[in-house]
Amino acid sequence: MIAVLALIAGVVLGVVLNPTVPDALQPYLPIAVVAALDAVFGGVRAKLDGIFDDKQFVISFISNVLVAGFIVYLGDKLGVGVQLSTGVVVVLGVRIFGNVAAIRRRLFKA
Amino acid sequence: MSDEKTQPIGPGPGEEPTVPLAGAAGDTFAAETPDTGTSAARSPGAKPSTGRSPSAKPAADKAVVDESPAAEISDTAAAEAGSAGSGDPAAAERSEPDADAPSDGVRKRISGAGALIGVLLVLLGFTLAVQLKSNSADEGYNSLREEDLYVILADLDSRADRLRQDIAELEATRRELNSGASSREQVLKEAQERADDIGILAGTLKAQGTGITLRLSDGSGPITANHLLNAVQELRGAGAEAIQIDGNGGSVRVIASTHFVDVGGGGIEVDGVRLTGPYTVTAIGPEDLDKAMEFRGGVVDDVRGDGGNVIVSDPHPVDITAVRGTPNLEYAKPVS
């Protein structure tokens, strides 16, 4: 409940404040968002499975974002930024799909 | 917090109170007050929590139930302690549901790891909105890397080149069309002139110019169709460009198909129009048209020889006003 409200509040804030993304952050932000989404879906799944752990969630959220950002950064430095960020997105996408599938099975038994 | 509180816990956590903290952790949502941590409180709280949590889960719930009144204080204290040790907030929150104290519970529910999660999710939502917005606003160029931008730049360059080429071609075409338009005007003008000439020759347009008039009238003998035909032929032979015959009964423009028929009882039918004398033949042509009429065996000779009267005027500006309608060609088509 709180989580959903927080998410909505964040979106509203983003829309209302309408900040511009600093140039330095621009390559990382999308990946970070995807990584965070992965953590969120993982959290939802854990919640449904009854094994949700705050600490684990917080840590996975932060580490996901940091690692994703770091990978993109490293890729940029290595000259394979595009490919590497594509890889990150693919991996995270697969994970998100897996989590969503688990959530779906739990909610709809299908 | 106060040493008093921590101390009771201190010993407690070692065995008993710690248990509830850890055990409750399984399901409960985060609830702790992050601000309360003091170094004193932290150290006792943190240690036990880390050490104990794996070991004493099942026992926890029972212990809590038994102790509930007493545990409350210790729980809060423990919560604070846990929160203060930022590394392990979970332990603290877990105490909350056990405590069951409504006011405390509500306040705690919105604190601790829950608050942290809330903050993270607010951040996520915020970033999501910002990213979506900036992405839609900038058509994605913002998130592109240098090499992509190079490729795009090269694309744009070549496209600009192509467009410049197109512009040059189109301008050339435009120039061509412009000059074409002027030549088209020229052609139109010539065509108009040509149409005018032909119109005059065909008798569909009025004409004016220098010319002569022949006045033919009956004398001892009548003017016949033959005389008029001769006169027209002589005039044409001399270069007349437009000829008109007037008489009592109308005016007739002489064209290629003009014919003359004597009518019984006097008069001549010219192209179906019956005229009676005197006749006036008006012709536009060369300046020496009048002289051409007076050759031996010419019009004047011819008419006078048959007893008619003919008067040839000197060349002067004349108007030819009779016109023919434009014929509708039904069978003949122009070649090419």
TrEMBL record, chain A:
The keyword Disulfide bond does not apply. The keyword Ligase does not apply. It comes from the Bacteria. It is a multi-pass membrane protein. Its main location: membrane. GO terms for cellular component: plasma membrane. It holds the Pfam family DUF1290. The chain crosses the membrane at residues 27-44, 56-74, 80-103. Keywords: Cell membrane, Membrane, Transmembrane, Transmembrane helix. It is found in: Cell membrane. Belongs to the sbp family. This is Membrane protein.
Automatic annotation (TrEMBL), chain B:
Residues 1-106 are annotated as: Disordered. Residues 153-180 form a coiled coil. It holds the Pfam family DUF881. Residues 70-90 have a biased composition (Low complexity). The chain crosses the membrane at residues 113-132. Signal peptide: none annotated. GO terms for cellular component: plasma membrane. Keywords: Coiled coil, Membrane, Transmembrane, Transmembrane helix. Belongs to the UPF0749 family. This is DUF881 domain-containing protein. It comes from Catellatospora citrea. The lineage of its organism: Bacteria, Bacillati, Actinomycetota, Actinomycetes, Micromonosporales.
